[in-house]
Amino acid sequence: MHVAPVGGTAVQDHVALAEIELCGELIIAASAAEDRLSLASIDEVLRVAEERETD
User: Fold this and answer.
1) What is the pLDDT of residue 49?
2) Is the pTM of this model over 0.90?
3) What is the C-alpha separation between 50 and 55, in angstroms, rounded?
4) What span, in angstroms and rounded, lies between the C-alpha atoms of 17 and 26?
5) How far is 46 from 40, CA to CA, in rounded Å?
6) Is 48 within 8 Å of 54 (Cβ atoms)?
7) Model confidence pLDDT, tens digit, residues 2-53
8) Structural contact between residues 37 and 29, judged by C-beta atoms closer than 8 angstroms
9) Who has greater pLDDT, 1 or 18?
10) SS3 letters for the chain?
């Protein structure tokens, strides 16, 4: 069995970290909502409109 070395070899995948952060924000929004999130609410949480405006 091969075990990765500890310390100093951390690899950061910025895209993956951003996706994890957005998933967390969706989970928080969904848990705070009384009903299912609408598509507009999901877009707001994911900041989809902001992305479209910058393109």
Assistant:
1) 74
2) no
3) 9
4) 14
5) 10
6) no
7) 666 666 556 678 888 899 999 999 999 999 999 999 999 999 998 887 656 6
8) yes
9) 18
10) CCCCCCCCCCCCCHHHHHHHHHHHHHHHHHHHCCCCCCHHHHHHHCCHHHHHHHC
How far, CA to CA in Å, does 11 sit from each of 2, 7, 17, 29? 18, 11, 11, 29
Q: How many whole angstroms separate alpha carbon 5 and alpha carbon 26?
A: 34
Enter the tokens of residue 9: 């070899």
User: Which amino acid is it at 4?
Assistant: A
Structure tokens that stand for 16 in this block: 């993956």
Query: Which two three-digit tokens encode residue 15?
Result: 């895209």
pLDDT, position 55: 58
